[in-house]
Write a structure and sequence with these properties.
The protein is α/β, with parallel strands linked by helices. It has a single domain, classed as Alanine racemase (TIM Barrel, Alpha-Beta Barrel), CATH 3.20.20.10. Helices cover 45% and strands 16% of the residues. The protein has nine helices and eight strands. The protein has an eight-stranded parallel β-sheet. Helix 3 links the parallel strand 2 and strand 3 (85-88). The radius of gyration is 17 Å and the shape is globular. The relative contact order is 0.15. Keywords: Pyridoxal phosphate. Residues 19-232 form the Alanine racemase N-terminal domain. Its cofactor is pyridoxal 5'-phosphate.
Length: 238
């Protein structure tokens, strides 16, 4: 198959997947008594090429998520000029803060004070304002990142008072093996408590391909959708 034909086939596949995801989000919003406009779709394009990002942008996607800096940085550079908001959604080491701040508009995985300080320092250096979400740990698995709910206020307050950063809200991943509806209900409580002190921290980033309906039902404002849009992940080669 020639390259133009391959590109057209890929565009058609992405368009079909996007339509299906949009139908699922619309149905979830109807079931929850919410407007579709209340929910932002983030296309998580990890392991997929910049060409897919360009195709998604052509199809109307405006938010793109990545979880590995070594992949995200070059991809964002290759897609510079497209009308996209870039979200960093993976666990983040402090030594990657400078690189991530260079392209990410929103960092979803802020879970400790040292990371807040590093992001703020690099945002000021770069002359950027970066929105940060406090990642909430809904289980005890350290591999998945996040700060315990009891520590969320301290991390949030640090973000709010750090130059170069804006507190956007919270993010979480549903624990493996648990009913996502129950997990996202706990996240909604954390979010409500946070808004009592920070009324503008309205973002709730929750829900992926398999549990988007439960996330919407619990008030998610941002969905991080990868597999349902782009297909099964390709292995990541370091």
């Amino acid at each position: 198959m020639t390259e133009p034909a391959e590109a057209e086939e890929r565009r058609a596949r992405l368009a079909a997947n996007l339509a299906e995801v949009e139908d699922r989000i619309a149905a979830a919003c109807r079931a929850a008594g919410r407007e579709r406009s209340e929910v932002t779709l983030i296309a998580v394009t990890k392991t997929y090429p910049a060409s897919d990002v360009r195709l998604l942008a052509e199809l109307g996607v405006r938010h793109v998520g990545e979880n590995r800096d070594q992949e995200a940085g070059p991809k964002a550079a290759e897609c510079a000029g497209l009308p996209l908001t870039w979200h960093f959604v993976g666990q983040l080491q402090t030594n990657k803060a400078r690189s991530v701040v260079g392209y990410a508009d929103v960092v979803h995985s802020v879970d400790r004070l040292r990371l807040v300080a590093a992001l703020g320092r690099e945002a000021v250096r770069a002359g950027r304002e970066v929105t940060c979400l406090v990642q909430v740990a809904l289980d005890d698995d350290p591999e998945r990142g996040g700060t315990p709910p009891v520590e969320v206020p301290a991390v949030a307050e640090a973000v709010a008072r750090t130059e170069g950063l804006t507190l956007g809200g919270v993010m979480a991943v549903a624990p493996l093996g648990e009913d996502p509806a129950k997990a996202f209900a706990r996240l909604a409580e954390v979010a409500r408590s946070l808004r009592a002190d920070h009324p503008d921290a309205k973002i709730i980033s929750a829900g992926m391909s398999g549990d988007l309906a439960e996330a919407v039902a619990s008030g998610a404002t941002h969905l991080r959708i990868g597999t349902a849009l782009l297909g099964r992940r390709k292995p990541f080669v370091r």
